[in-house]
Amino acid sequence: LESTDNNNIIPVMSHIDAPSPTKRYRGGFSSSICASLFEDPHRRKDCCSLACCGVLAGDRSRYLLTNQLPPPLWRRLLVYIALPAGLYVADRIVMRNIREEVIVEECHDAFPDDGSGPFLGAFNSSKIHDDQSLYQDVENASIAHVVLSFSFYLVTLFLLIRAAANRFKFRNQVIAHLKQKSLEESGLNESDDIHTIIEANALLHKNDTRQATKICGFYRSPDDIINHSVQSDDDNILSTDEQNSGDLCTCLWSALSKMFCGICCGCWCQCFGMCATAQEEREIAALVPQEKLLIDYITFQPYKEYFHSQHLLRTEKNGNLIAHIRALSALSSQLMKMSIIFLAALTLYACTNIDHHFTLPNMVLVFATLFQSFFILYFVHWNWHRFDLSLDTVIKCFASGFVFSTSTAIVVEILVSFVVYFVTGLLGVIALVFEVGNLDMSDPQTFIPALIRENAWLGVLAMFLNAFVVAATTEELSKYFGWFMVETPESLDEKDLNDMMEGADYIPSDMDQTGSTEVDPLISPNSRHSTVLYQRGLNSKGVGITVGMVSTALGFSCCENLKYVFSSTDLSTELITLLARSIFPVHALAAALQSIRVCQRDLEGDTNMGLGRVLIPALLLHGCFDFFLMVAPVIISVRHAGDIVGGGDDSTYIDRYNTYLGACDTYNAVDDGIWKPKGNRNENVDEVDTMISGISFGLSTLSVIIGCIYYFVQSRKQKQRLDLLESDNRSNII
Question: pTM of the predicted model, to two decimals?
Fold first, then answer.
């Protein structure tokens, strides 16, 4: 470590044997900021650096290091979520009104009240858009759209810059603590002017630190020189063989991460400081006592304040719902209260009829969507396995799936979709080059349908990639990490759990901030001050893993169902969508399939069970279910390729007429007494399309049935293995 004076070099670790040459990591980091992210199956907190761009992880690290509490949750939700989300939603409403104004005008022009007017020519023309000044409402709405859009981007940019500044400030605090610990361990005292040396070192890493904590930065690769930094406890340098080992999924992740970490001009691409946040959490573990790390996110409540009461409910087989609610942690209690308040506010908003697209019937659909997830969760957890996993953990897992898994999946799906569209588009261009010479281009009426039919495989490939890559892989990974990042007392091993509770009497879970307590009368008084050995059977742990992963999946599917249900403005369509998505709980079943192999890895000790092997059964189920549903419209579209180029027979004309009329009728822009739907197309064609759709639905149903059979068979086999393993463990103890 050097001070600003080149002649004053202090050998910080001179009393220790010279370390072997390693990489010195810039920015004051004690190890690679991209190391071990998701690679260690026991490091749950690394995943939290991705959720909400690492905000919660950064808050926790800041609290552990400086005891600084973040702003109240309501204020953060108001500033960081409600404000930008309100501006965005308002802008979407304005844009929707603009679109409706234009569509209504087009519909009036296409289907006038006198019964005349060629509808096809009106919809194919752009005369409605030539002079928007004729529609004052549209012009005023356009001005509002510009103002709201600008405000949204300005507020979002300001919040991102502010967050980056806070990350940079905290990074310097971490550097100071790391260097101070290094100096103190080296035997330096106050006369050595420690603070001057720390400040000089912070200036040395200033630019690299800023790059690592920026909204988007390029962090230089490490230098191959001796590392004099403090190494965190879990920062082990892997050998080349260990780095290259792993299953297919692990190798793919390693290849993808290396594309962004080192190959890009010798830099590591950083977004929102997420890698730096993950590394800081590892460094914090070396700076604070172990028992201080065992706290919840957001509320920072220690586990031992509420776990004992939850454990007593399990050991005493207390099935009283009120007792389980009273034993909740402060975080779960806040989540429940916030959900109730939000639903109440949303109900009041629906009753006001401010937005005619969201009224009281729509709010009933919201409750119906929530009921579908809670109904499954009631049986999976409360009715069958309430004593294998606490209600507190179930609430946290459900919230993680609803918020973190869904938001992560949306962002990743958008990015992956661009790659899929690029690949399929490139293949389409190549196919077009090869096919053009073999087709007659003189007549578009025959050329375009022939080109579509010759390249039908391209549409099938696109649906395959969408089903297995964009949807299945992204969503199953998001659900897995959504469960994986939820760390609770029940996720600790028994040794850590007993060490945490050693010497601790019963501490009521409803301790308020002033320190006063209220004894829960529903918990047995004979157990309140007893010394308990916290131990669970392997099968109970396995069921807890399954229930936790299914709870996360149900939270994810609940949010996804809400998104799909309200993607339409028609109430009947929303209801049909909800019913269709409620028939098969694919997300919950896929999570249960994941849990089988997670139990093999964590409980049976199968070291070969990597992330890829954990996900494969769920990927096959989810991918097949989506693919069979997606490919049917492609096949039907190829059959009717001639309809795309216009003209054609009367059936084509009737189809277009009915399509446009139905769209205009949705906006109440046509006179139902004058304009009526015309007859359907040839019945034979409809029968073929119906048969294709039926086969597609049948194959999707079959994939779900096979998935259910596979789960029940594997679950029973695993239960037998865990029973045998537990019996062997008891025999060894005896």
Answer: 0.80
